[in-house]
Amino acid sequence: MKRRLGEMAVVIFFWSAVAMGCRPPTPGTPAGDLIQCGTEAVQRNWPRVLGPANTCLTGGSATACLIGLIDPVAGITEDVIACVVRREGSDFNAAAQANPVDTRSARAASNARKFLGDRGYRFAE
After folding, report:
1. Are 68 and 53 in contact (CB under 8 A)?
2. Which of 32, 35, 72, 115 has the least C-beta neighbours within 10 A?
3. Each residue of 86-99: pLDDT tens digit?
4. What's the predicted TM-score (pTM) here?
5. Phi and psi dihedrals of 90, rounded to 5?
6. CA-wise closest residue to 81 among 124, 109, 39, 45
């Protein structure tokens, strides 16, 4: 009986830790630290998420898609996603301004602004 309770306590602790560690910040709540896009971790990992992030930005439910890309074990942190979205959103915005009929770029730029604004990210640079 004691062994069973001990096993259950370990399982409950594990799932509690997972739930607390995986919970994204409340939208609109600024992140604790400033995001620094020049860090080695961001620079090393952004190329792997660039294509999928662009697909998310041009799609329908961009925020859910972008959050789904986060994989800390693989080095794809929320900072990496935020930096890619910031850069790509700027590029999509420039493309939409240069070509007003480019609705794909305009939608992607709008999705990037919404994602960054809703998540409350603050950047160091």
Report:
1. no
2. 32
3. 999 999 999 999 99
4. 0.73
5. -65, -40
6. 45
DSSP string, 38-75: TSHHHHHHHHHHHHHHHHHHHSS-HHHHHHHT-BGGGT
Whole-angstrom distance, CA of residue 64 vs CA of residue 13: 27
Alpha-carbon distance values, 16 to 19, 62, 93 (Å): 5, 28, 41
For the segment 24-55, what is each residue's pLDDT rounded down to a tens digit? 544 444 445 799 999 999 999 999 999 999 99
Average pLDDT of the chain is 83
Chain position carrying tokens 């995986």: 22
Ranges of each domain in the chain: 2-119
In whole angstroms, what is the distance from residue 81 CA to residue 115 CA?
A: 10
Question: What radius of gyration do the chain's Cα atoms show?
Answer: 18
Residue 56 has pLDDT above 90, yes or no: yes
Residue 54 contacts by C-beta under 8 Å, 6 or more apart in sequence?
88, 108
Is the C-alpha dihedral spanning 63, 25, 89, 84 positive or negative?
negative
